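Worked example 3 (structure in, sequence out).
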């Protein structure tokens, strides 16, 4: 369950401050680039691969929840 605490921290500390003012359907490439720049600025360094993995997983959980709630549709490959 420790990983879920990490996801909550990432969502509260990084995702909401950077992306929280946008509708989930308006998170585009430019918004993600802005998120990346804000993350580096906030951390004061480039994130490690482990940090990137955790933060990407948290963002994917947000998108998964948006699909479950009907805010987004799932794209199939």
């Amino acid at each position: 369950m420790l990983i879920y605490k990490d996801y909550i921290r990432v969502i509260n500390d990084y995702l909401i401050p950077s992306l929280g003012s946008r509708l989930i359907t308006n998170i585009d490439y430019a918004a993600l680039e802005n998120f990346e720049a804000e993350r580096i600025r906030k951390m004061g360094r480039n994130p490690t691969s482990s940090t990137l993995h955790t933060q990407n997983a948290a963002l994917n959980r947000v998108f998964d929840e948006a699909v479950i709630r009907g805010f987004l549709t799932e794209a199939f490959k």
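Notes: The radius of gyration is 13 Å. The CA atoms of residues 30 and 36 lie 10 Å apart.
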